[in-house]
Design brief:
alpha/beta, Aspartate Aminotransferase, domain 2, Aspartate Aminotransferase, domain 1, 445 residues, seven-stranded mixed sheet, 15 helices, single chain, globular, binds pyridoxal-5'-phosphate
Length: 445
C-alpha cells in the first residue's frame, strides 16, 4: 500500500463548517470511531445507516445540499499551500478539486462505510473502476492475486487478461470452497490479495468469509470481497474481510439508471487511494459526479426495505419452482451446499439474497422460457444486471459470463441453460407468480 507522507488523512466526518474555528483540533474525529453509532457497537446495517451523520442542507433543508463544484476557493493564499501539503483536508472541510474529494461524494461514502461497517469508503464512477483501482492500489508490478474462479465476467477478464498485460500482475483462480486449494495457491512474498464475491455470480456460491479471511491473514494478504449481490444480507468486513467493493449500479441504486461503485475499507487505504502522487483513484480518476452521489444517497435509506422484499420473493419463487420439479439454485433452499453457512453468516431478517438461478438445461429451452416470460406473460425483462424492481433474466453462459471460454464456464458450473433471475418486487406476489406459471404451461414438453 502506498504510504505517501503527503496523503490527506481526511475521510472522517467534520461537524463544524470551516470559517468558525479553522484551527480548532477538537473538530477531528479519531478514525476508529468515525463510522460507529453512538455507543460504539456496529450491530446491523440498518441501525448503522440510521446512526451515520446526517448533514442538513445549506438553508436548513432536511436533505443535504449538492456541492456541484469542480473546484474550491480559499480565503487566504496560504491555505492552498497547506491543503497541498496535506495539513488541511476534508476532515476540516477543506476541499481542493472534485477529482480528489468532493463533499457530496464524501457524504455518500460515509453512508457506504456505515452500511459495510468499515472505517471509510469512497465512491466511484462504476463498480469495475472500484475493483480495478483497489487492486492496482494493493498490488504492484510482479504482484500476484488469488481469486475465486467464480467471478463476475468483467472482473474475471480484468484479472486474467488485462492486468497481466498492462501491469504484470497475475492471478491464480481457485475453488474458494476448497480452503486447502486457496491456501496452497498463495505464493509467499508475491501474493498480495485474496479476492472473491460474497455470493458469486451466477451460481450463487456463498463464501466462507471468516475462514477465508483467517487463511489470508495468516499469510499476510489483504482480503477484498465484492458484496454486490448481498448488501444488508452479508457484512463481509464484520466477518473478517479488509475491503468491501460494490457495484452500486445494482441493489444500492435499485433504479437501473446509474452506473456507480464504491471501495469500503480502512481509512489508511482510502486515503492512500487519494494520494496526490500514488493514489489509484486520484490518478486514474474514476470520479463520481456530485449530482449522482446526491441521488444515490436518497436511495440508501430504503435499501433495507427493498432487500427484504427481493429476498422474500426469491425465497417464495425458488420454493415453488422446486415444487414444480424445476432445477433451481437458491441459497435459501436447504439443499443448497452453503445454505447452513449463509444462515450462520447473514444479518438477521434480510433473507438469503434476491437472485436465483433456474437451470433449463439447454440454451434453447432457456431462451423459449425467457421469451414467454417477457413477451407473453410480462413476468420480467430479458436484461443483464440485477437489483432492479422488475425481475431481470439472462442466460449467463451467453451473456454476463461470455468472457469465459467453454472450459472456464464448465469449471465454474455455468450450464448452457442457466437463467439468472434477479427477482423484482413490483406488483403483487400472486400476480407475478401466476405469470410465471402461465409461461411454464406454454413450454414444449
Ligand atoms: C455489475 C457487477 C460488477 C461491475 O460493476 P459496474 O457497476 O457495472 O462497473 C462487479 N461485480 C459484480 C458482482 C457485478 O454484478
Amino acid at each position: 500500500m502506498a504510504a505517501e507522507p503527503r496523503s490527506h488523512d481526511c475521510v472522517f466526518p467534520a461537524t463544524k463548517k470551516r470559517g468558525q474555528d479553522d484551527f480548532d483540533s477538537d473538530d477531528f474525529y479519531p478514525s476508529k470511531k468515525a463510522m460507529l453509532p453512538p455507543g460504539g457497537v456496529w450491530e446491523d446495517p440498518a441501525a448503522a445507516l440510521a446512526s451515520a451523520r446526517h448533514e442538513f442542507g445549506e438553508h436548513g433543508g432536511v436533505n443535504m445540499s449538492i456541492e456541484a463544484s469542480a473546484t474550491f476557493t480559499v480565503m487566504e493564499p496560504e491555505t492552498m499551500r497547506r491543503m497541498f501539503a496535506g495539513e488541511l483536508g476534508p476532515d476540516r472541510d477543506f476541499f481542493i478539486y472534485s477529482r480528489h474529494f468532493n463533499p457530496t461524494v464524501l457524504n455518500l461514502g460515509r453512508q457506504m462505510a456505515a452500511l459495510e461497517a468499515t472505517e471509510a469508503a469512497y465512491c466511484t464512477a462504476s463498480g469495475m473502476s472500484a475493483i480495478a483501482s483497489v487492486l492496482l492500489q494493493l498490488c504492484s508490478s510482479g504482484g500476484h492475486v488469488v481469486a475465486s474462479r467464480e467471478l463476475y465476467g468483467g472482473t474475471h477478464a480484468l484479472l486474467s487478461h488485462f492486468m497481466p498485460r498492462a501491469c504484470n500482475i497475475t492471478t491464480s483462480f481457485v475453488n474458494i470452497t476448497d480452503l486447502e486449494a486457496v491456501s496452497s495457491a498463495v505464493v509467499e512474498g508475491q501474493t498480495k490479495v485474496l479476492y472473491f464475491e460474497s455470493i458469486s455470480n451466477p451460481t450463487l456460491t456463498v463464501a466462507n468469509i471468516p475462514e477465508l479471511s483467517r487463511i489470508a491473514h495468516d499469510k499476510g494478504l489483504t482480503v477484498v470481497v465484492d458484496n454486490t449481490f448481498a448488501p444488508m444480507v452479508l457484512s463481509p468486513a464484520k466477518l473478517g474481510a479488509d475491503v468491501v467493493v460494490h457495484s452500486i449500479t445494482k441493489y444500492v441504486s435499485g433504479g437501473a439508471d446509474i452506473i456507480a461503485g464504491a471501495v469500503c475499507g480502512p481509512a489508511s487505504l482510502v486515503n492512500s487511494m487519494m494520494d496526490l502522487r500514488q493514489g489509484a483513484l486520484m490518478l486514474l480518476g474514476p470520479t463520481m459526479n456530485a449530482k449522482v452521489a446526491f441521488e444515490l444517497s436518497e436511495r440508501i435509506p430504503h435499501l433495507g426495505l427493498r432487500m427484504k422484499e427481493h429476498c422474500n420473493r426469491a425465497m417464495v419463487y425458488a420454493t415453488r419452482m422446486k415444487k414444480m420439479g424445476l432445477k433451481v439454485i437458491y441459497p435459501g433452499l436447504e439443499e443448497h451446499p452453503q445454505h447452513q453457512l449463509l444462515k450462520s453468516l447473514a444479518n438477521k431478517d434480510y433473507g438469503f439474497g434476491g437472485l436465483l438461478a433456474l437451470d433449463m438445461v439447454t440454451e434453447d429451452r432457456a431462451n423459449k422460457l425467457m421469451n414467454q416470460l417477457q413477451n407473453v406473460t410480462q413476468f420480467g425483462f430479458m436484461a443483464v444486471s440485477l437489483g432492479y424492481y422488475e425481475t431481470l433474466m439472462s442466460c449467463s453462459g451467453s451473456s454476463t459470463s461470455s468472457e469465459m471460454n467453454e472450459e472456464e464456464k464448465e469449471v465454474a458450473g455455468i450450464s448452457p441453460g442457466l437463467i439468472r433471475m434477479s427477482v423484482g418486487y413490483v406488483g403483487t406476489l400472486d400476480q407475478k407468480w401466476a405469470q410465471f406459471e402461465k409461461a411454464m404451461s406454454r413450454m414444449p414438453k
